[in-house]
Amino acid sequence: QVQLMESGGGLVQAGGSLRLSCAASGNIFNIDAMGWYRQAPGKQRELVAVITRSGTTNYADSVKGRFTLSRDNAKNTVYLQMNSLKPDDTAVYYCYCNAQRSDGNWGLFWGQGTQVTVSS
User: Fold this and answer.
1) What is the pLDDT of residue 13?
2) pLDDT score at 65
3) Which of 9, 12, 44, 48 is deepest in the core (most CB within 10 A)?
4) What is the sign, positive or negative, of the torsion defined by CA atoms of 83, 86, 90, 93?
5) CB neighbours of 2 closer than 8 A, spacing ≥ 6?
């Protein structure tokens, strides 16, 4: 199985910054995309940012220019730097990856989620 360990959530004032980390471990042969989704109370889960193994990134319009996603392939880890945070960024942030296991099968794997709360 593949496990994703998230860290870095918390409470911050509007305008502040947080950095989320997500490390994948376990039965991993290869990882393609890694990224983050978020879900606010009463809303659907939405894509925040995704990065391919080669480093190509894609961001939600709502976070462009404020969030930066990076990746360390040697550590199977992604980092989401969140700057100029707004109360609307308050949500549970979920890390995910599209990984190939040693048996050759690909799957989509999720972390448990980390809470980000931005106070006004």
Assistant:
1) 98
2) 98
3) 48
4) negative
5) 24, 25, 26, 27, 28, 97, 99, 101, 107, 109
In the prediction, which pLDDT does 113 show?
97
Output phi, psi for 27, to 5 deg: -80, 75
Structure tokens at 51: 């990065």
- Mean pLDDT by runs of 10 across the 120 residues of the chain is 95 98 95 97 96 96 98 97 98 97 94 97
State in Å, rounded, how far the first CA of the chain is from the last one.
Answer: 40
Say how many C-beta atoms besides its own lie within 10 A of residue 102's C-beta.
10
Nearest alpha carbon to residue 36 among 118, 92, 84, 107:
92
DSSP of 77-117: EEEEEE-S--GGG-EEEEEEEEEE-TTS-EEEEE---EEEE
Can you give the pLDDT at residue 53? 94
∠ Cα 40 53 80 (to 5°) = 35
In contact, 22 and 6? CB cutoff 8 Å = yes
**CA distances (Å), origin 62, targets 8, 33, 99:** 21, 20, 27
